[in-house]
Structures are given as structure tokens and as C-alpha cells.
Amino acid sequence: MTTRHAVAQMIDHTLLKPEATREQVAALVADARELGVLAVCVSPSQLPLEGAEGLVVATVCGFPSGAHHSEVKAAEAARAVADGADEVDMVINLGEALAGNWAAVEADIAAVRAAVPAPAVLKVIIESAALDDEQIIAACRASESAGADFVKTSTGFHPTGGASVHAVELMARTVDGRLGVKASGGIRDAAAAQAMIEAGATRLGLSGSASVLDGFQD
């Protein structure tokens, strides 16, 4: 079993509900500090964050549908970094992915990458539950070709569901350590988190971080 500290340092402590208030986001940051997690992930309108010193600040882009113009996603990502985000989790154009238009998917990701060059970290949400295995592989390859740092399973808002062990295994095998793999969506206890880590996840997106971490020991 992975140690509690090691798991905490993989967690993006997340609050992306559209109704989230600034007070709730402030509580999220305080919880993150108390739990010892790596990062917090909030909606871009909540930036800049107060009291987040020492935490990685992540936000989302083109969220949750991904069906935005690339120029809009790029502008949103650039604004987020200007407002203090260290990492941006963008959603792919799922319609283009399902149509097999991988050049368009890659160009969309590349536009955001160009807007937020390193050291900003770019994670690409592929909405894995909506894709078959071949599409998951192709989405990972497009993400890598476009210069992403991570591939991520899910927004947590799509009706097809969140992360699965199978998808994480397939994503990890495809990127083979060249990119990180973030499992997100529906991970609610230590057993689920451990399964994702064993499948190859290097980051976990969690809204219930405390209940997950309660199942681990140092």
C-alpha cells in the first residue's frame, strides 16, 4: 500500500462545482494545507487564489464540454496563468475525437500549449469513459504530439462516467512515462485511489481528499 504522504503529494484537491463560492474555495485551500496535498484545482474565475502559497494552483480550460473555439481556450488558459495558475487542465474537443479528426484534436491542444508554454503545466482531459480503446490511445498520442505534460481521464461531469482502472492502464501504457497520467472522476476511497496508482496514475483529482487519505498510513 502506498503511504499517506506519497498519496497526498499526488492529489489535486478539487472544487469545480459551478455554484462554488469564494468562501468554499477559501475552505478548500485551508483543507489542502491541513491535508498536506500537492495542489488545489479550482475554476478560472476563482483566480487569483489567496493563501495558496506553497501549493500548486491548477485550473481548468474549455471546461467541461471542450466544445469551445481553440482561440477561446488559449485565451482562457493564458488569463489563468496570468492570474497565478501553475497548471491548466484543458478539455479536448470530444466531437472531433469521436469523429476521428485527430489532426483537429492535436491542433486544439497545441493552441493552448502555445498560449501557456513551460513552466506552466498542461494536462489534457480526454474524457476516457466516452472513448473506446483505440480512441483513448489516439487521444494520448495527440496530446503528446501537441506538447502536453499530462493526460487526464475525465472532467467528472460527463454522463459516461469518470476514471476507470482500464483507461488509466491504457493511458499509462501509451505515454510510457513520457507524460504524467491523472486519474479523476469518481475516486472516493483509498481502495479506488490505490487501484488507480497501481494502474499507472501519477496524479489524482479528488474532491473528497480527506476520506481517501484516511485509508492510507505513513
Automatic annotation (TrEMBL):
One of its GO terms (cellular component) is cytoplasm. It catalyses: 2-deoxy-D-ribose 5-phosphate = D-glyceraldehyde 3-phosphate + acetaldehyde. Keywords: Cytoplasm, Lyase, Schiff base. Its main location: cytoplasm. GO terms for biological process: 2-deoxyribose 1-phosphate catabolic process; carbohydrate catabolic process; deoxyribonucleotide catabolic process. Pfam families: DeoC. The active site is at residues 89, 152, 182. The keyword Lyase applies. Gene3D superfamilies: Aldolase class I (3.20.20.70). It is found in: Cytoplasm. Pathway: Carbohydrate degradation; 2-deoxy-D-ribose 1-phosphate degradation; D-glyceraldehyde 3-phosphate and acetaldehyde from 2-deoxy-alpha-D-ribose 1-phosphate: step 2/2. Belongs to the DeoC/FbaB aldolase family. DeoC type 1 subfamily. HAMAP family: DeoC_type1. This is Deoxyribose-phosphate aldolase. It comes from Georgenia satyanarayanai.
